[in-house]
């Protein structure tokens, strides 16, 4: 009965593939290095002083106090304030910490419209990219547990619009169809390529960044965050969003 004693060899389990490509891992490592070097550089070059006022703003009142305290440092230690701002904003975007709208307002109050918009778009894109790469590592079980229906909806929409995915992603960035934090975290799980994610983020964030940064110039006049988006602002963003998604709708009708 030799057959009864035959040991069937199981195929060796193939090693799990690292979820990030070489370039994605390079970008993620660069962002992590910027975090460390940025914080260390700011810590070593700022003068000795009482920095108890440095905290994440949660209200417009907190933001106005922070603006008042930072204005003198911005003129004398511009580079340090810029680096510190970037590190905090990217960190908040990476780990989906609420309050980046206050950071956008602060950019306008401290640096003006042109520099403020450039700064917000850069930091928001860097933070969104970090969140994208982080999700590739740990995102699937978190999303499946917290937002299963929203993830299913997003996956279905991405699959249907694969040929015009950039237009669809632009539409999402320009309109409140899905929260930006969810888009950042869910995109790699539903197979949105990074180059499309990156382009849609850079381009799609500009209109909202402009509205928010410009409002930061008149920070004292704001009564609530809701005052940022009046009817005209929301209508403009929706119009731009509809224009961006038009090629997707046309392709769907033609098919």
TrEMBL record:
This is VTT domain-containing protein. The keyword Cytoplasm does not apply. One of its GO terms (biological process) is autophagosome assembly. InterPro entries: TM41A/B, VTT_dom. Keywords: Membrane, Transmembrane, Transmembrane helix. The keyword Cell inner membrane does not apply. Its main location: membrane. Residues 97-216 form the VTT domain. It is found in: Membrane. One of its GO terms (cellular component) is membrane. It comes from the Eukaryota. Pfam families: VTT_dom.
